Amino acid sequence: MAAEIHSRPQSRRPVLLSKVEGHQDAVSAALLIPKEDGVITAGEDRTIRVWLKRDSGQYWPSIYHTMSSPCSAMAYHHDSRRIFVGQDNGAIMEFHISEDFNKMNFVKTYPAHQNRVSAITFCLASEWVISTGHDKCISWMCTRSGSMLGRHYFTSWASCLQYDHETQHAFVGDYSGQITLLKLEQNTCSVITTLKGHEGSITSLWWDPVQRLLFSGASDHSIIMWDIGGRKGRTLLLQGHHDKVQAICYIQLTRQLVSCSADGGIAVWNMDISREEAPQWLESDSCQKCEQPFFWNIKQMWDTKTIGLRQHHCRKCGQAVCGKCSTKRSSYPIMGFEFQVRVCDSCFESIKDEDRTSLATFHEGKHNISHMSMDISRGLMVTCGSDRIVKIWDMTPVVGCSLATGFSSR
What we know:
The chain is mostly beta strands. It has 3 helices and 33 strands. A 5-stranded antiparallel β-sheet has the order 1-2-33-32-31, with no helix packed on it. The protein is globular and about 80 Å long. One of its GO terms (molecular function) is zinc ion binding. Its main location: other. WD repeats lie at residues 20-51, 195-228, 238-279. It holds the Pfam family WD40.
């Protein structure tokens, strides 16, 4: 069911430590058990499994539990060993795992949603289980009584969730590409603001409460960093993936962002650097370089007896330009453009060779990735997806491995 992968560490690359196989369908979520050589997985095959590493080096399931509906999301609280499993039918089930990780006892069922559960978080301080679902809502329920405390509805499927335990603020991403910031109360909530910047559905969120930064990944292949704590409300755009960004994790200690995409791409972004904010795209009826009219500018076309041109935008300055004034392509990592994008000819001339030096490293996971989780203290990462394979990675060659940066030896 499981096979150990022996691979020699290569310089500055994630090292594949193990492959865990056995699920009969897509693996929805996988979590590393803190301080243990173990993984908890939830799958579309309706199973929850706890895999422990044996003396042979292989991972074998110590717990194999079948649910009534496909498993779609999971949250695990290690100190209390409570696990919350969201299902395709909208229910969330709570279990308690024994100290030796060989038994899992059913605790409660929460009727949280009317449709597939997309994300769950558990807050021990308030004893709330908070979740989002494809019934277009966020719900928060009391884990003591099992009763519903509140719900808030959105205009489209709620796809991902992050929660600030101290301030009781929830960030919810949805399929329309919008992120909503809510303040949750005991039986009500208030909408603080909405964040709009992505051109596709929000697939993943990560909240760093220390620096008060929110990171969002989307189906438009991009990541946006929202400076929630900063007064200027800065946003940074990161473009380096070639498929939808499925999972993100920000390592506050080393100021690095790890992101994974559906095509197996794993990126590690250096955020400990002064980056430039991408400009807003300017609107114009004619090219802002040569003043030739765009094709909808009928009056200028008539007056100048010229055929209108197609409008483009320079990614560096944001100006509206025609094709003839933007013939060049260039990467510009300081603005988040890790691969070549359209720039106007004058901006191309201003970009020096050293400006094209990458500020991220890119690696190949070699399997479909729909979910990723990290144990930052050990520098470990687990990835899983529709190929039914769970992979465990040593990320320390890429994200730092000394005690000075917070990673301990295993």
